[in-house]
Quinol monooxygenase YgiN
Amino acid sequence: MEKYALFGKMMAQPGKREELLTLLTQAAQLVATAPGCHHYIVYKDAQHPDWIWVSEIWDSVEDHDNSLQIEGCRELIMQAMPLLAGKPEKIELAVVGGKGIS
Amino acid sequence: MEKYALFGKMMAQPGKREELLTLLTQAAQLVATAPGCHHYIVYKDAQHPDWIWVSEIWDSVEDHDNSLQIEGCRELIMQAMPLLAGKPEKIELAVVGGKGIS
């Protein structure tokens, strides 16, 4: 079955990107051992000083959705909300192949 | 040093996505062993039937740029050009951390 993937974009309030990055790397640690999680990688946008991207790869969209229920995840989301400038955006994908994913 | 990353978006001519995906997975095989290449993953966009995304992670932007000179890569780019509807877009990034990248 094709793996589910997404690119998520978050725009931090001005000057809040580092704080938001800290929360996201904590989230990455929480979901790293979740069933079906292959990737959860956090990036800084090189052009936009307040933007953050995440790339996720999961066995299925259900595995991704379940991860939002992991203990600690909801708390991180609540902490992240006031740091965001606007609603996060996501690009939903299916993995075709390549290097870096088995 | 922070790793260089990018998300690339390509829009195929209507009905040409599968053909373009074949070329991109060939490109992934070519660059897989290039110096500094950690990821080169090819995706189908779930919402747009003609769109393809690639996520790449490299030790440096120089390693990425050098990969375009690999034998066979230029040929694949030439084959891909007529399959594209418009110019590819890229989002340049720096890796912060997470699961799936060492």
User: Anything to note?
Assistant: The two ends of chain A are 13 Å apart (CA to CA). The helical segments of chain A are 17-31, 61-67, 73-80.
